[in-house]
Design a protein that fits this description.
The protein is built from 15 helices and 8 strands. By secondary structure, it is an alpha/beta fold. It folds into 2 domains: 3-97 and 193-271, 3-Layer(aba) Sandwich (Rossmann fold), CATH 3.40.50; 110-181, no CATH class. Helix 3 (42-54) links the parallel strand 1 and strand 2 (61-65). Helix 5 crosses helix 10, helix 6 (112-123) crosses helix 8 and helix 14 packs antiparallel against helix 15. The longest helix is centred in the C-terminal third of the chain and has 44 residues, at 301-344. The radius of gyration is 23 Å and the shape is globular. The relative contact order is 0.15. It binds iron/sulfur cluster. Residues 67, 98, 108, 190, 192-193, 196-197, 279-280, 283, 285 line the site of iron/sulfur cluster.
Length: 345
């Protein structure tokens, strides 16, 4: 880190940013072949700026994966980043692009975990029966994990059937009731994440013989992605490629501080379109998908058509599920009211 950067960081009196820079410098010093994943999103912009600030030897290789469903604004932003920092961001092809994955395996629905379990059940021609776990295990003996999710229970030979709340369908309220009433008549799968994101990243690590992978995950972003990690650094089990998340501890406030300190600007996806997140266009896992689709339609109409074409079934099924949840909640309230009224009498 040069003196100017060190001074800006120290003067700003933001301890989180200061320590992250010092730690990043120490970690980078110990690496011979570091690679840094660039998504074109706002967290990734910070990571690139931070790493570039301390990478005095220019040893970091930057890469971006084209999932096959990317904003034009993201691609333009990558060109801007290359010019701004005088770097090359390698464009990687996916093992299979999202449209191919969806055609081959099915469409993502609700979340990665939910899609994974439904995919497994569909593979075993599950009939969405509301039966106890022991009955279903006899009927579908090779589908234990997904059945446990479906039954909100798990089985061990020592303790028999036990109730569980983690990794169970009840984490998504009314989902089981909804699926029983409306079984999916189309394949559901989370395979696009595997073929369009995970596999190409792993391949690149192998090809570059990287010993450090730098990514832009923050704890404050919430969700499964950040919940999978406890700290900013994970040592590889095989001692091959460690993973480092330099802005893991940044709050939204730290992020704003950093942007001001180092004049970090983001892609037009944020500044012009008004999106809250970037990434794959129209991913059905997004909690704000309807709001996003309106924005995509206005700013990137061709991609909107593509997203609806690829993910349309999932959008419809999700909307139906949300409507079901609203109805069930209303019924629940009504029942409560009635019970309270009869209790008062
Ligand atoms: S983030 Fe969404 S659209 Fe992108 S690969 Fe994963 S499931 Fe598919």
């Amino acid at each position: 880190m040069n003196d100017e950067i060190l001074k800006i960081t120290a003067d700003a009196e933001n301890y989180t940013i200061y320590t992250s820079m010092c730690k990043a410098q120490r970690i980078l010093m110990r690496s011979y072949d570091p690679i840094c994943s660039i998504s074109g999103g706002s967290d990734s912009d910070l990571v690139l700026d931070l790493i570039h600030n301390i990478d005095e030897d220019g040893k970091v290789t930057y890469y971006w994966i084209d999932t096959g469903l990317e904003y034009r604004a993201t691609k333009e932003h990558l060109d801007c980043l290359e010019q701004k920092y005088g770097i090359e961001i390698k464009r990687l092809k996916p093992d299979k692009p999202i449209p191919t994955c969806v055609k081959q395996y099915g469409v993502p629905f609700l979340s990665k975990y939910v899609s994974e379990q439904i995919m497994r059940l569909q593979k075993h021609h599950f009939q969405w029966e509301d039966e106890p776990l022991e009955v279903l295990l006899r009927k579908y003996p090779k589908c234990k994990t997904a059945l446990q999710w479906w039954c909100n229970a798990y089985y061990t030979p020592e303790n028999g059937i036990q109730q569980m709340s983690r990794y169970s369908i009840s984490r998504n309220k009314w989902l089981k009731e909804f699926i029983i009433a409306n079984p999916p008549d189309f394949p559901i799968s989370n395979k696009c994440c595997e073929y369009a994101k995970k596999k190409p990243a792993k391949r690149f690590i192998r090809e570059t013989d990287a010993d450090l992978e730098i990514t832009g995950i923050r704890k404050a972003e919430g969700g499964i992605r950040s919940a999978n990690y406890k700290t900013c650094f994970s040592e590889s089990k095989s001692k091959s490629c460690n993973t480092y998340r330099p802005i893991f501890w940044y709050t939204d406030g730290d992020k704003r501080d950093y942007e001001q300190m180092f004049d970090v600007t983001h892609s037009r996806c944020y500044t012009e379109y008004g999106l809250r997140r970037t990434g794959c266009v129209g991913c059905p896992f997004s909690k704000h998908i309807n709001e996003e689709l309106v924005i995509i339609k206005e700013h990137e109409p061709d991609l909107y058509k593509a997203a609806v074409n690829i993910f349309g079934k999932s959008y419809e099924y999700t909307a139906k599920y949300r409507a079901f949840v609203r109805e069930m909640k209303a019924r629940e309230k009504e029942n409560e009211k009635r019970q309270n009224a009869s209790g008062d009498q």
